[in-house]
Amino acid sequence: MRFKIDEGSPIYRQILETFIRQIACGQWSPGEKLPSIREVAEMARVNPNTIARAFQELERTGLAETKRGEGTFVTTDSNAIAECREDTARQIWTEFLEKIRELGFTNAEIKRLASGLKEESV
Amino acid sequence: MSVTMQGQKQCQQALAAVHAIYEQPAVELTNLVKRYGLKRALDGVDLTIESGKVVGLLGHNGSGKTTMLKIIAGLRSPSSGTVKVFGMAPGVKTKQRVAFLPEVNAYYEWMTIDYLIDFAKSFHPDLSWERAEVLKKFMDLKGESKVGALSKGQQARLKLVIGLARNADLMLLDEPLAGIDPPSRARILQALVGEFRQEHQTLIISTHEVKEAEPIFDHVVFLREGKVALQGNAEALRDSTGHSMEELFGEVLE
């Protein structure tokens, strides 16, 4: 696991987002055990208190749960994961729209692009 | 009183004692001044360092970092003001719980690494051989190597092995990364994060190489000309200023 950290914004949030994206794209399966706080701290070379905070927030999203003395596990609630995947997609979609509108693209043009994509891919 | 009740009571008392230690600040400095002749190395420092934190003491050379660490370690006495370490004035009692790792290497060159660890254990009985073994492997050091034959990076790693093997409640590290090759720096930071026990330990690390070290800090203290120029929780400062600690170092101290 690799973490790219931008020290100019809160680090716990970046660790949290990394896990959310990885759970959303299925890099961690439902019910799978996540690495411990200390393991993540060592890998990322980040303060364990910061990692603990990221894990707390991850639990709050409902994507993971901590079992006492056992560790933190990805939720088995597939609806929660599907929802998170949609949320993440919507986030990326919004960012994409902002960028492409800056280029002066209209909705019709964006739709035309999207339909072209459908034919050439898969 | 029944046996179980008595046991429960003892247990509660022990827990209360542990909490009292934990909630007590590791270090409290009040209006601390240290003069060397006419120069004020520390010029009225007020600072409280909570237990269980990794603290970055950041400042240029000559800003007072080393003086502050030495006073906390009990190796220098202040000209005025008060110092408390775990609620006590620095002395024999606090020294048992404090490890100070100076920037300069003070080890005998003719000793082998294993001999040196034995030697260190003779005056630090809390040093654990098992921990030293594990750390030695992690730091890629061989017991039979002579101290005098080690590179600068290896010497820095050796210092960390001996410091961390003690598992002291308060560790003071003076410039552990200065002038060391990048792979050694990465190893040292990884060992610090991996060995740090927030349940009872506090780390104060002085450095002017902020970029690499800053993700391991809970709290940062910027020192300028013997005064605290800025201090706070690192994540809160990132959130409120949008800057890294390295950028703040430039802004606050230039």
- Strands ordered across the widest β-sheet of chain A: 1-2
Return Rg of chain B in Å: 19 Å
The tally of domains of chain A stands at 2
The radius of gyration over CA of chain A amounts to: 18 Å
What is the topology, as strand order, of the major beta sheet of chain B?
A: 5-6-7-3-8-9
Shape of chain B: globular
**CATH homologous superfamily designation of chain B:** P-loop containing nucleotide triphosphate hydrolases
Count of extended strands of chain A = 2
The ordered H/E elements of chain B are HEEEHEHEHHHEHEHEEHH
| Spans of at least 5 consecutive residues with low confidence of chain A | none
**Biggest interface and its residues per chain?**
A-B, 19 and 25 residues
CATH topology call of chain B: Rossmann fold
Largest sheet: number of strands, sense, barrel closure of chain B: 6 strands, mixed
Q: How would you describe what is shown here?
A:
The complex is a heterodimer of chains A (122) and B (254). By secondary structure, chain A is mainly alpha-helical. Chain A has 2 domains: 67 residues, Winged helix-like DNA-binding domain superfamily/Winged helix DNA-binding domain (Arc Repressor Mutant, subunit A, Orthogonal Bundle), CATH 1.10.10.10; 42 residues. Chain A contains 5 helices and 2 strands. Chain A has a two-stranded antiparallel sheet with strand order 1-2. Chain A starts with 10 loop residues before the first helix and ends with a helix. Chain B has 254 residues and is α/β, with parallel strands linked by helices. Chain B has a single domain, classed as P-loop containing nucleotide triphosphate hydrolases (Rossmann fold). Chain B contains 10 helices and 9 strands. In chain B, the strands form 2 sheets. Chain B has a 6-stranded mixed sheet with strand order 5-6-7-3-8-9, sandwiched between helices. A 3-stranded antiparallel sheet of chain B has the order 2-1-4, covered by helices on one side. In chain B, a hairpin with a 2-residue loop joins strand 8 and strand 9. Chain B is globular. At the A-B interface, helix 2 and helix 3 of A face helix 7, helix 9 and helix 10 of B.
